[in-house]
Amino acid sequence: MNDKLIINTNLNRKEPSYEPQTCVVEKVVEMSHGRFKSLCNNLLQDNYEISQNKDLMGYSDGKYHCIMAVDSECGDGLLIESEGSNYARYSQYIPHAADIVSTHNQTLAEQNFKNYLSEFINNLVEKSSANPEYKACADDIFNPELEQKITEYILDEVKRQTQSDMNLESKQESLVETKLYCPLYILAEAKDGGCDLDEMPSQCCIKYADLINSAIDKTF
User: Fold this and answer.
1) Cα(167)–Cα(22) distance, rounded to whole angstroms?
2) What is the spatial distance between Cα 45 and Cα 109, in angstroms, rounded to a whole number?
3) Average pLDDT over residues 41-51
4) What are the residues whose beta carbons fall under 8 Å from the beta carbon of 179, sequence distance 6 or more?
C-alpha cells in the first residue's frame, strides 16, 4: 500500500479563480476499467451509456443535471452533461468518485458507527503512544456502546434495502446458578465412643445422598 495519497486529475496553470457550478447527479453508471478508459479517451464520440441516459441530463433551475460514470476498478469518475446529445458535451473528471458516492449514500447510523470506530481507534493510538506497554483488553473493545452502534447500523441498512422496519427482539435467557461442593468430607461419631469424629470415605455414604443434599439446600 502506497503511503502517499494519489489523485488522478488535471492541474490548470496560473488559474486566477474557480467558480464551481451546481451539478446534480441523477444517476451513477458503473463501468469496467476498459470501458471507462475508452469513454475518457473519446469524449466527443457517441457513447451507448450516454445515449441511454441523455433524458436525465440538461440545465434547469440554475443546475446542471448529470450522470456520473464510475470506473469499477480504480473508483474515479466522469461527471457528464450531454445536453441531449449522445456524447459528453460537458464533462469533468472526478477523482475518487466511488468514495464520494458511497459517502453520500451512507445512513446516519452508518456515519455514527464509522465516527465511533474512528474516535475509538484514535484513543487507542494515543494510549499506545503515551505508554508503549499499554495493552488493550477485549472487553474494552467489544463493549455495550459498540454493540449498540452495530445494531443501529444493521437495522438501518436492512431498512434501506427492504424499505421496511425490522423489529429486534431481545432474547433473555434465564440464569442458572450452580454450586459445587467438592470434595465432600463426611464425619461420623467414633466407634469407640470418644469425642473425636472419624472421617468416612464418600463411597460409604452413597445411600445417604438424599439426606446430604437436603441438608445442603437448607444450609444455603
Assistant:
1) 40
2) 43
3) 96
4) 220
pLDDT digits (tens, 9 = 90+) for 74-83: 999 999 999 9
Pairing of strands 186-189, 77-81: unpaired
| Cross-strand pairs, 24 | 65
Q: Is 187 helix (H, G, I), strand (E, B) or coil?
A: strand
> Helix %, strand %, coil % for the chain, to 5?
40, 20, 40
Spatial distance between the Cα atoms of 111 and 77, rounded to a whole number of angstroms: 23
Query: Nearest-CA neighbor of 24 among 75, 79, 76, 71?
Result: 79
Residues 6+ positions from 175 with CB-CB distance below 8 Å: none
Q: Is the pLDDT at 62 greater than 80, yes or no?
A: yes
Per residue in 170-215, pLDDT tens? 555 667 777 766 666 677 777 766 667 777 777 777 777 788 778 7
The distance from CA 37 to its chain's CA centroid, rounded to whole angstroms, is 32
Q: What tens digit of pLDDT does each residue of 69-121 get?
A: 999 999 999 999 999 999 999 999 999 999 999 888 777 777 777 788 888 88
- d(CA 6, CA 25) in angstroms, rounded, equals 24
